[in-house]
Amino acid sequence: MSNAVLHYLYDPYCGWCFGASPLLSAAQEIEGLHVEPHGVGMLAGARRKLMSQEWREFVRPHEKRITALSHVEFGAPYTDGIQQDSSVVLDSGIPIAAMLAAEKLSGRGLELLKRLQTAYYVEGRPVAERDVILEIATESGFAGPEFMATFDGILGAPLDEHIEASTALLAKLGARGFPAFALQIADRIEALPVGRYFGRPEHFAGDIRAMISAAKGDAA
Questions:
Q1: What is the rounded average pLDDT for all residues in the chain?
Q2: Could you tell me the fold of the domain covering 4-219?
Q3: pLDDT for 147-163, tens place per residue?
Q4: 29, 205 Cβ separation under 8 angstroms
Q5: Domain ranges of the chain
Q6: What is the mean pLDDT of the segment spanning 174-190?
């Protein structure tokens, strides 16, 4: 197993994180690189909220810029549907727990996270609802009862510990927000300037490959 790890700090309700999904896909193609997702819980716990006009006005300008830079499109079921529904709960903890359940069961946490992003931002599905989590997990090939038992076991202290560790890593990296990426090779960890890579996944992957290659040269 490679000792090269790409740490990815994200929140399920961060549109910029959705915009970074092509970068993740490119990184996953790098042989020997493990991508480790860390949910920061922007809207978890006491910070959970309902969809509102205030939230729409906050995110809409960002979403236009995200599409312009990353070429990732937000679907009409999201912009014209779920964003208009004031009963929709925004709770980061639920999709983060689902990601952790998928990782625990089969090492597919990142895959499920990307699926949840598409479900929310393209299909307009409320991914903080238990029934929706079950539907998406089943669609993704997980056995429903086993997945939900694992999911329920993560809610509470394990989820809180994950979010706390993710927040600590974000602070350690000196990142001012998310998404944030950091490449760890052995005991050295280096933050990557994600802003320069939006819309340029091939350059993102190329720079990571070059950093890994340079580290191998230094160790020789």
A1: 94
A2: Glutaredoxin (3.40.30)
A3: 999 999 999 999 999 99
A4: yes
A5: 4-219
A6: 91
